[in-house]
Amino acid sequence: MSVKTLTVQDLIKEASAFSEIQSALHESDIYGVTDGKAVGTLVEHKFQSYLAARYSFARSNSASGVDFPSINVDIKVTSIVQPQSSSPFKSARQKIFGLGHHLLVFVYEKVDNSRKRTANLFFRHTIFLDQSKTADFQITKGLRQLLKNKANEEELAAYIMDKNLPVDSIELAQIISELINSPPEQGYLTISNALQWRLQYQRVIDEAGQVDGIIRVR
C-alpha cells in the first residue's frame, strides 16, 4: 500500500494531533532534564517518527537546513519560560525578507513529577508561521513606514546601517534596490544578531490566529 506524500496541510493537522497526544504522556527519559536542546531534539525526533508512520517525506540534510525540505518547513521546539531558539545565519537579508522557509513552532511547559519520576510536556502553543512572516518585526515595520513616506536610497541605507545589519556595500545596494521595487512583508519574529540568529516567538504567540500566515495549530 502506498503512503501519502506529506503536504503542509497534513503537517498542520498532524501537529495538532501530536501536540494533544504528547501532552498526555508521562515520560521517564526527560525527568529532571533541564537542557532545552535535549528536550527539543527528543520532540523533533518523536514528531518525525510519528509522521513517518503515516506519510512519505524527504528527510533533512545539511544542504536544505530545514527538517522537511520537500515542503520547506523547519521545526522549532521551545519552552514557554523563554520562547526562543537559534537558526542558522545565512544572510542579513533574512531579517528583511524572511528566513526563506516556514516554521512549525512547538511551545511546551515541562512539569516533573517527583513521586513518579516522570515528566509531562504540555504543549501550550503549536503555531505554523508562513515563510512570508518570518522577517524581523521592528526592522520590517520601520522599512515599510519609510517606503510609505517615499524614503530615498540614502535614507533607507542609513536606517539599515543603524540597525547594525551585517552587510557590505554591495549587498546593501542590492537590498535597497529590491526594497524600492517591492516593500517587504511585515515580519513577526524578533531576530537578534549572533553567530546564529536568535529567534524570539512571543509576538508570534500573541498574534497567532489573528494575522494571515500565523496559524494557531493548537
Topology summary:
Blueprint: E1 4-5, H1 8-23, H2 36-52, E2 55-56, E3 73-79, E4 84-87, H3 93-97, E5 102-113, E6 118-129, H4 137-148, H5 153-162, H6 169-181, E7 190-192, E8 197-200, H7 202-207, E9 214-216
Helix pairs in contact: 4-5, 5-6
Q: SS-based structural class?
A: alpha/beta
Low-confidence stretches: none
> Strand percentage, roughly?
15-25%
Number of domains: 2
Q: Note the total helix count.
A: 7
Distance between the termini: 31 Å
Task: Characterize this entry briefly.
The chain has 7 helices and 9 strands; from the N terminus they run βααβββαββαααββαβ. The chain is of the alpha/beta class. The longest helix has 17 residues, at 36-52.
Describe the protein in words.
With 218 residues, the protein is of the alpha/beta class. It folds into 2 domains: 4-90 and 100-135 and 193-216, PvuII Endonuclease, Chain A (3-Layer(aba) Sandwich), CATH 3.40.210; 137-181, no CATH class. 36% of the residues lie in helices and 22% in strands. It has 7 helices and 9 strands. The chain has helices at residues 8-23, 36-52, 93-97, 137-148, 153-162, 169-181, 202-207, and strands spanning 4-5, 55-56, 73-79, 84-87, 102-113, 118-129, 190-192, 197-200, 214-216. The strands form 3 sheets. It has a 4-stranded mixed beta sheet. Strands 4-8-7 form a 3-stranded antiparallel beta sheet. Strands 1-2 form a two-stranded parallel ribbon. Strand 7 (190-192) and strand 8 form a beta hairpin. Helix 4 (137-148) packs antiparallel against helix 5 (153-162). The longest helix is centred in the first third of the chain and has 17 residues, at 36-52. The protein is elongated, with a radius of gyration of 19 Å. The two termini are 31 Å apart. The model has no long low-confidence stretch (mean pLDDT 93).
